[in-house]
Design a protein that fits this description.
mainly alpha, about 0% strand, about 50% helix, globular
């Protein structure tokens, strides 16, 4: 597991340095001065030992400790094991991600990740503990039981950690037509947008082909979203415990609860100027 800790440490330092070179939003604060950054660090620490954010590190450790029930996959070549693991995992994560946005209770869990209003590399780890359990353990478990080589999970998880840093970093990057095959920061920032045209799109993890295949792909070439977050929840808690307990509210009651609390704390609470997203499957742009 030292490999994954090393990837995490090197990745977060590298991307934070790169964010100073070519930021998408120059007005964002950086590091510990960024709004909600300490909560994201807390999420990384708490979720990690229990099951994931370092989640991925905790999940890999626990899953690989479970005894194999068969060595079917262990008889395959390493490349064949990795190819199947990668495709099945990426496909499953696409549909799991869509389900998080479609189901009310699962959305309350996943909403924690979307409430960040200033993104940087550390934002990838703002996740609710329940999401960490499902995403980073349940999907890996069947492969462990089938006897997949442990290094397959470790290599994939290392790649996934770096991909997460890149997708959320306040770093202006462009990959051009490769967006038609791979999910990038250009696509993922639109998924975090408050604008209706982008927020119900680009669910893919590494590959964007699932979004193209199932008509949830959105790529306005050369554009970046103007605002990040969830409609009406700019006053969402910036502390870990507040985010953890927020799942007791649906969106409507969360807006009432957190706006009310913000109004008590300041005479001029932030106004909401964001747009409501369309239901999944509606008003989604076709591939550019």
């Amino acid at each position: 597991m030292l490999i994954l800790f090393g990837v995490f440490a090197v990745g977060i330092v590298t991307f934070h340095l790169l964010e100073q070179v070519a930021p998408i939003r120059t007005e964002y604060k950086s590091g510990v001065t960024r709004r909600g950054y300490l909560a994201d660090i807390t999420s990384t620490i708490i979720n990690g030992p229990v099951l994931s954010a370092l989640t991925k590190i905790g999940a890999v450790y626990l899953v690989t400790r479970i005894p194999m029930q068969t060595k079917i996959m262990g008889e395959w070549s390493w490349a064949a094991q990795f190819a199947l693991f990668f495709i099945v995992n990426d496909f499953a994560r696409y549909w799991l991600h869509r389900l998080y946005h479609a189901n009310d209770f699962l959305w309350r869990i996943h909403r924690v990740h979307h409430t960040i209003v200033q993104m940087d590399a550390m934002s990838v780890f703002r996740t609710h503990i329940l999401e960490a359990v499902i995403k980073n353990c349940v999907i890996f478990l069947p492969f462990q039981l089938l006897g997949v080589d442990e290094t397959v999970i470790i290599v994939y998880s290392s790649w996934d950690i770096l991909k997460g840093f890149w997708h959320h970093a306040n770093l202006r990057t462009h990959i051009g037509k490769f967006n038609l095959f791979f999910n990038s920061a250009e696509l993922h920032w639109w998924h975090h947008s408050t604008e209706a045209r982008g927020q119900q799109s680009n669910y893919g993890s590494i590959l964007s082909i699932w979004d193209r295949l199932f008509h949830t792909f959105y790529w306005p070439k050369g554009e970046w979203p103007g605002a990040i977050g969830v409609d009406g929840l700019t006053d969402f808690p910036d502390d870990y415990l507040g985010q953890f307990s927020s799942i007791r509210y649906d969106d409507e009651h969360a807006r009432e609860a957190f706006t009310a609390k913000s109004s008590e704390a300041t005479a001029n609470p932030a106004s909401d100027t964001t747009q409501q997203a369309p239901p999944i499957g509606q008003d989604i742009a076709e591939p550019a």
